[in-house]
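2024-03-11 09:14:02 DEBUG pipeline.ingest accepted 1 chain
2024-03-11 09:14:02 DEBUG pipeline.ingest length=326
2024-03-11 09:14:03 DEBUG pipeline.predict start
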Amino acid sequence: MSTLLSVQNAHVRYPRTGRLATQLTGGHQRWVNVVRGVSLEIGKGETLAIVGESGSGKTTLAMALMGLVPMYEGDVSFEEQALAQGPRGRLRPDRERVAMMFQDPVGSLSPRMTVRAALAEPFEIHGRDVATDDEVVRLLDLVGLPAEFADRYPHQLSGGQARRIGVARALALEPALLIADEPTAGLDVSIQGDVLNLLSGLQERLGLGILIITHNLNIVRHVADHMAIMYLGRFVEQGSSEDIFWHPRHPYTKALLSANPNPDPDAETERLDLVGEVPSLLQLPSGCEFHTRCAFAEAKCTEVVPPDGSAGPGHEFRCHFPLQDR
């Protein structure tokens, strides 16, 4: 399968501001490194899920790929063509080929615009012919909504309906890649299933590549071909979803999977609990940055950065003492 998106050694940093931050770092560090050396690939028609706690850098990476925040370092290619960087290091993706769904389904829609105007806007921005009523109706039908929704405003939509409008708007120009930031956040479980089924169906019909950013491991299990576990701006493990769910190698991955609710009350699971708080990006731990929360940390972990390891083709991790070796 041909590669749709390739990212190599991506770094994103923000300028440090504020007197307190300066004091915490001794006045030396001018930048906060939020994404650090991330590499990934997405094939056409594939889904990659990026999973991690809040503050791990997931959304920042997505924003950088969309050119909404600068990428300090790294090489990004889309459809085997390198993406150019504009002023201040912002990538310049083809917005007709790469689209993004933002986390807040209602907040991402203008309260002053009807659904009709919101769905027509991408055509106007990109110099296409103004979307006709038939085009708006087609997009609504694409996401399973009736034509009368065209005249509604965002406050007249439920969370699930607003999410569907967001999907329709993102797919208006028929992109090849969809970046979905927490596509099920704030939705009831039944509505989450509807949204995921919608995305899966559209992917099958349109051949979409999808990058999903989520906390919800249940949706990863059902919709993602591959997954990457992110901690403090780095991928600590990545591979096929099946391999990682059945054979996690990094303790952080195992802890996240352990915290995922199991609907079977009689299921026997070996839990691995996280301890402590996520360290500050202003004061990263030495050695393996997860050692302050790891139940298996040894002296080596506090001093030496773990090398890249492999558990087979496509399954990579960063840990001195991977779980299956114990």
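2024-03-11 09:14:41 DEBUG pipeline.report The longest strand covers residues 3-15.
2024-03-11 09:14:41 DEBUG pipeline.predict end
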